[in-house]
């Protein structure tokens, strides 16, 4: 069986795209999911990009034991030094260097000639190789590069010590047949040992990232670079779940294997969506709500007679369970804990306690609680930023009055320690009014809203609203989350959580 490595770049190429940024706790949570999923390599970030990126690569490198941890670096000694330092605690570190090889990038972005680019790449790969046992080199915009130059470049960096050669379709421009052919041509024209691995990295601008990744594998790539839910620059990267399930489901046509535990795919996908405050599009392959739903009468009829009539893979194979939740308001903590274990969660007793409390409160407000609700509760508690009690404001109660003919009014009561405070404000809608009342009490430093999203966790009008708020000051971004069947309450909880962090880090 031919093995294909899965190189996950959710925490680097995925995280750097708008609306997908994560804080340290969130990145660690995603890293844990990726490790359990059994990716071969996880790209943890770009240490030179910021102090935050450096710290998260460093923490991930310290935590992850079961797979390689990679850090991205441009071809400069400063970038390489930062990446090496961040990767220092990793069991199996990999440094990932990149330099553009297409005429348009070399001329306008790098302002370098082919010879200069070649020289820089050789020197920096050798520099990195002396400091790290495993070096990957990416020829940025490889798919729009001249073939002869690309071959010279690949040969040069292999000679300098790169063990993985990535040929990215940086702008999502290639077709599957061009991708397959490019990999064939480059592989046939360079001299290298069996241990050199070729890697494919697709972007989805024309909707071909997954097809191109599979075509790259047909052309000889033995590593696919991808992200959970296809997150990534512009239209995204190749989605991990689609690549892996395509290889598994069409094994007859593509005799390749990955190490991924596919039964953890759904959970990983939901965790990432919960963390970035987004929801899968309904028709998203593999993990969208409709991916396994048969609506048309003929389809339902066929599926009832034999599932395989319209189902090419099973929901169970990616870890979707349709069993009804056996928990309710009378369930005890022990049963709750067991159910979470069945869903694949192993939580500390403290976290179980927090989740259980929230679950009980939810039982009083919502008729039917399902797995999606439980997953949301767990993710929220895992990534919630907790703030010291003496600086933290807590929501006591709120009232909003809203109509379609006057301004909304809100009264909000908060407490900090034993002190209770209450304020009233008008606003442009109930959320605005309530946030303004909170501002009057908290008096935070000037900030802007980078993000305010509301998602419903499941179906039905009593579904929980999942609110995410990102506040930006001159120095930092703070993420707050709120989960409640009342979307105003969820919004207030999210806003307060972000404000508490802001006040703690940047007191007035
Ligand atoms: O798309 C791209 O070219 C990249 C490289 C840094 C590998 O993400
Ligand atoms: Zn990319």
Brief summary of the model shown:
The chain has 508 residues and is α/β, with parallel strands linked by helices.
Question: Could you explain how this protein is built, in words?
Answer:
The chain is an alpha/beta fold and 508 residues long. 41% of the residues lie in helices and 20% in strands. The protein is built from 17 helices and 16 strands. It has helices spanning 10-14, 24-37, 51-63, 77-86, 103-110, 114-131, 147-160, 176-189, 209-218, 240-249, 265-276, 297-305, 333-342, 349-363, 371-383, 430-442, 487-505; strands at 2-3, 5-8, 41-45, 68-74, 93-100, 135-140, 164-169, 197-202, 223-226, 256-257, 394-401, 408-416, 419-427, 448-456, 465-472, 477-484. Strands 2-3-4-5-6-7-8-9 form an 8-stranded parallel beta barrel, surrounded by 8 helices. A 3-stranded antiparallel sheet has the order 11-12-13. The longest helix has 19 residues, at 487-505. The radius of gyration is 25 Å and the shape is globular. The mean pLDDT is 94. Bound molecules: 3-methyl-2-oxobutanoic acid (KIV) and zinc ion. Residues 13, 168, 170, 201, 203, 233, 237 line the site of zinc ion.
């Amino acid at each position: 069986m031919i093995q294909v490595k899965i190189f996950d770049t959710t925490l680097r190429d995925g995280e750097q795209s708008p609306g997908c940024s994560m804080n340290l706790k969130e990145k660690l949570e995603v890293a844990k999911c990726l490790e359990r999923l059994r990716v071969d390599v996880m790209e943890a970030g770009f240490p030179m990009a910021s102090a935050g990126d450096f710290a998260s690569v460093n923490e991930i490198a310290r935590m992850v034991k079961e797979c390689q941890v990679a850090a991205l670096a441009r071809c400069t000694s400063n970038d390489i030094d930062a990446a090496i330092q961040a990767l220092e605690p990793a069991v199996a570190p990999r440094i990932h260097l990149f330099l553009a090889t297409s005429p348009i990038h070399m001329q306008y972005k790098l302002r370098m000639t082919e010879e200069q680019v070649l020289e820089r790449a050789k020197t920096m790969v050798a520099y990195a190789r002396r400091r790290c046992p495993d070096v990957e080199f990416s020829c940025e915009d490889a798919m729009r590069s001249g073939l002869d130059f690309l071959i010279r470049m690949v040969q040069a960096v292999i000679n300098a010590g790169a063990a993985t050669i990535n040929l990215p379709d940086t702008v999502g421009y290639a077709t599957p047949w061009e991708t397959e052919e490019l990999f064939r041509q480059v592989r046939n024209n360079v001299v290298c040992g069996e241990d050199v691995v070729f890697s494919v990295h697709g972007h989805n601008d024309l909707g071909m990232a997954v097809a191109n990744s599979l075509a790259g594998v047909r052309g000889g790539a033995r590593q696919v670079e991808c992200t959970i839910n296809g997150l990534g620059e512009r239209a995204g990267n190749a989605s991990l779940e689609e690549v892996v399930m395509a290889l598994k489901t069409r094994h007859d046509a593509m005799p390749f294997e990955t190490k991924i535990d596919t039964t953890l795919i759904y959970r990983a996908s939901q965790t990432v969506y919960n963390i970035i405050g987004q929801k899968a599009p309904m028709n998203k392959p593999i993990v969208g709500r409709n991916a396994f739903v048969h609506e048309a009468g003929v389809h339902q009829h066929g599926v009832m007679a034999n599932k395989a009539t319209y189902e090419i893979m099973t929901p169970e194979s990616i870890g979707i369970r349709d069993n009804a939740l056996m928990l309710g308001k009378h369930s005890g903590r022990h049963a709750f804990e067991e159910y979470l274990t069945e869903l694949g969660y192993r939580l500390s007793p403290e976290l179980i306690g927090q989740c259980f409390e929230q679950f009980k409160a939810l039982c009083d407000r919502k008729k039917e609680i399902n797995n999606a609700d439980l997953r949301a509760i767990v993710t929220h508690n895992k990534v919630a930023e907790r703030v010291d009690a003496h600086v933290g404001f807590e929501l006591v109660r709120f009232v909003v009055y809203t109509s379609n003919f006057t301004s909304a009014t809100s009264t909000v009561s908060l407490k900090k320690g034993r002190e209770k405070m209450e304020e009233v404000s008008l606003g442009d809608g109930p959320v605005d009014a309530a946030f303004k009342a909170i501002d009057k009490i908290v008096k935070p430093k000037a900030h802007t809203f980078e993000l305010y999203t509301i998602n419903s966790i499941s179906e039905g009008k009593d579904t929980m609203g999942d609110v995410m708020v990102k506040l930006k000051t001159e120095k930092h971004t703070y993420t707050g989350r709120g989960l409640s069947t009342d979307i105003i309450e969820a919004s207030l909880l999210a806003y307060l959580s972000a404000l508490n962090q802001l006040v703690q880090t940047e007191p007035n």
